[in-house]
Amino acid sequence: MEAAVRQANRRTQVMPMVIVAILFFVLGFATWLNGSLMPYLTQMLQLTPLQASLILFSFYIAVTFTAIPSAWLIRKVGYKNGMALGIGVMMLAGLLYIPAAKTQIFAVFLFAQLVIGAGQTLLQTAVNPYVVRLGPEETAAVRVSIMGILNKGAGVVAPLVFTALVIGSLSAPTGTELTQTQIDTMADRMVLPYLGLAVFLGLLALAVRFSPLPELEEEQVDATSADQSQLKAVLAKPALVLGVVALFVYVAVEVIAGDTIGMYALSLGVERYSVMTSYTMVCMVVGYCLGIALIPRVLSQQTALAISAVLGVILTLAVVFGNNESYAIANAVLVPFGGVALPDTLMFIALLGLANAIVWPAVWPLALSGLGHLTSIGSALLIMGIAGGAFGPLFWGLFSGTGLGQQGAYFVMLPCYAFILFYAVKGHKLKSWK
Predict the structure, then answer these.
(1) What is the C-alpha separation between 144 and 114, in angstroms, rounded?
(2) Could you tell me if 341 and 331 are in contact, meaning their C-beta atoms sit under 8 angstroms apart?
(3) Domain span(s) for CATH 1.20.1250.20 in the chain
(4) 1-212 has which fold?
(5) Contact 263, 48 (CB under 8 A)
(6) 271 contact partners, CB below 8 Å, separation of at least 6
(7) pLDDT tens across 95-112, in order?
(8) What is the DSSP track for 272-315?
């Protein structure tokens, strides 16, 4: 009898998990599409690296000021309606790219980025609890890992789709000043794909709204549960506070590696710059799978985190001091299998995906360990670490405009990986500030 009940429960969970998986893929697609959009707009609008970094800043800064309102809205309308609204906001953003392309006004593109960032924050706030609560608690980690792979897998697909639909056979030579006719052509190529994206998101929002997703029961929380005394108690936990900083610098380097690689490829004259994010995302998926296989069977979370940080430092130094004329790595691992020859520096940036993959899942349990009833507040603070994705590329763009150039500007990742290493070795062990 119990076996039959368990089997029935599994069947009822299949469709909701399929829907949630689709939404995680959509989240990843929207996030990592920036890696292709950034160099494309740079070429089309003749942007400086600092101006281009504002494309990422606008997207990720939305997390900072929409996370708390998103949580409030979900409490009012429910999780399923919150998901539909989040997708609806992303649909609106998709439509905003059309006048942005037609007018070729950079500020309109930035506003569209801000809106789609706000929409994905609302969707992410609503969809994440389903992963944990749609199934047994003891298998939640497996579900989280699967959704993570889907999210990063979307990062592999998004640049390829962008290249196929937006760039296609478009002839806009890199490293040369474009004519107005070429710029107009590049802008016009964005209209139909983004209109199609908006239509897809609109249909998906309706599908979610009327789907069989069960509504999650929201825990009743006292309005004063997050008062100053509890916040003070949380801030007295060094492992958590340092964990927030670790996630902030981690997201900074993750976004730099994933979304500026196309910009750097454009500066080197690589024609297929728009697909470069896919290389970083493939490395992240490989790293994610290695983490699932090795932790904790072979490596502890702390050891894996330390190894990731050290690898990040080594690869960053390799990027900064690498030779753009050398193609040794690509000739060894890509060309024999039909891949293209790429400079070693680009390959080192892509390999940073391997170093970054397991930082997020390793930091969370270390930061939340022993928080007890303060866990929800600690989790909210950790989510705020996503704002690092706004500031990391901004500093990279700032230093790119100096004598360092884009290659030398990657040094901004060194202190980030150094802090992650500190957290892995000592920071997560601290019990008090004294």
Answers:
(1) 27
(2) yes
(3) 1-212, 226-434
(4) Growth Hormone; Chain: A; (1.20.1250)
(5) no
(6) 174
(7) 999 999 999 999 999 999
(8) TGGGHHHHHHHHHHHHHHHHHHHTTTTS-HHHHHHHHHHHHHHH
d(CA 351, CA 330): 12
Q: How far is CA 190 from CA 87, 162, 319, 320, in A?
A: 20, 9, 32, 33
Decide if pLDDT at 376 tops 70.
no
Q: What is the mean pLDDT of residues 308-335?
A: 95
The residue ranking higher by pLDDT, 391 or 2, is: 391
The CA distance from 427 to 410, in Å, is 25
Residue among 73, 171, 186, 167 at smallest CA distance from 119:
73
What sections of 78-179 are H helices per DSSP?
79-103, 106-133, 140-162
DSSP secondary structure string, 403-418? TTHHHHHGGGHHHHHH
> What is the tens place of the pLDDT at every residue in 171-194?
556 656 788 998 999 999 999 999
Higher pLDDT, 434 or 70: 70
Instruction: Give the tokens for residue 248.
Output: 């902030």
In order, the DSSP letters of 202-268 are HHHHHHHHTS-PPPPPPPP--TTTTSHHHHHHHHT-HHHHHHHHHHHHHHHHHHHHHHSHHHHHHHT
Asked whether 312 and 74 are in contact (CB, 8 A), the reply is no
Do the Cβ atoms of 208 and 214 come closer than 8 Å?
A: no
Top pLDDT among 349 and 150 is at 349
**pLDDT one-digit tens code per residue, 21-50:** 899 899 999 999 999 999 999 999 999 999
153 with 282: CB under 8 angstroms?
A: no
Which fold, 226-434? Growth Hormone; Chain: A; (1.20.1250)
Quick one: tokens of 117? 């960032």
Q: What is the dihedral of CA 300, 417, 40, 325, to 10 degrees?
A: -100
Cβ distance 352 to 250 under 8 Å? no
Q: Between 169 and 382, name the one with better pLDDT.
A: 382
Q: What is the number of other CB atoms lying within 10 angstroms of the CB of residue 386? A: 24
Q: What is the pLDDT of residues 238-257, one digit of tens each?
A: 999 999 999 999 999 999 99
Residues 53, 35: contact at Cβ < 8 Å?
no
Structure-derived torsion over alpha carbons of residues 72, 78, 83, 89, reported in degrees to the nearest 10: -50
CA dist 244 → 44, 254, 274, 369, 420 (Å): 37, 15, 32, 13, 11
